Amino acid sequence: MIIVAMLMPALLLCACSRSGRLSKKSNGGRLMPGEAFEEEFLGTEPTDPGPEPTETDPANQFKKVAISLPTKSLQRWLDDGNRMKTALEQAGYEVDLRYAANDTQTQIDQVRDMILDKCDLLIIAPLSQSPYWDQLLSEAKRNNIPVISYDRLLMDTDAVDYYVTCDFYLTGQMQAEYIIEKLDVEHSDRPVNIEIFTGDASDNQTNFFYNGAMDVLDPYIADGRIVVKSGQTELDQVATVGWRTELAQNRMDALLATFYSDGTPLDAVLCSNDSTALGVTNSLVANYTGSYPVITGLDCDIANVKNIIAGKQSMSLFHDTRTLADATVNMALDLLRGKEPTTNDDVRYNNGKKTVRSYLCAPLLVDISNYKDILIGGGYYTEQDLS
After folding, report:
1. 10 pLDDT exceeds 50?
2. The domain 34-160+321-361 is classified under which CATH number: 3.30.565.10, 2.30.40.10, 3.40.50.2300, 2.60.40.420?
3. Which of 59, 152, 248, 345 could cross-link with 358 by S-S, CB 3.0 to 4.6 Å?
């Protein structure tokens, strides 16, 4: 039975047993010239951290928190940034919030300036993985500036101290379990046919999605109760570059034409997020005439919630980024006040240089039965948004 995970401070975590499938790649981006970087830091002395403040220490108000987020073009990043900034300012801290305009070089330049400005804490949601993050954040470490990696893990550096994210391994598990239950695979009188779509293989979140889902599906695939007609089950076969809707749609078009045009039923498509689910749905509406399959998703984007209402998508998992932002603020406040931050996973998130202590927020399962309670009742959308 699917258990709808509730947002909570602590969460029982499942070990990731498909470690052999985990991969780590770099998105790159334009690189900052090493010579210019080193020259700017020449002669920079480490910041004196001074005495550890307490909640009642009036010196708190003179501490600065720097927040670097990827872009203003997505509402969630605007909301996340404003929520964190407001909460930290209300606690008496100065906040330097900057957006990188979807450009890796811009983000690197901004973070470099934040370190040179001697901020007291860095919160970074990296736009992409650049080999210059390690060199840049080493300066933060040398200046005693703690670094919180937000939503996306900074890879290949030992200078990141904490990570706050959603539990993407659990997300993959929940999506796969939903399919197992909805198709009653345990009692089906025939094998069920599914296809699999994940996000960008260079995104470490995709690894956790994929491993969580496949840890559930593998036993059923092995004994023949689930069949992937395309044979495409490896991460490099099911990944969607940039999580792009049009690429998911193109691949679904090809799968339908090759494996399902003869009337073979397609029972489910596991989509790791809503942008890929939208592409799959567009393809199904245009090209598939069989009984409509189970479709999973993540993010509860407006277009996908509308598809849930219309019966074109079965479910979407909801990672409330407000909870993610609040957990990050709590961690930042603990660090600024000299306290030990709360974490709930100190094992699974290795960035290639160290295992990063992490706080994971759990997803909620949203479908036709509860979207009003969770999304409208929770203040995330209005009735008008979804009409």
Report:
1. no
2. 3.40.50.2300
3. 345
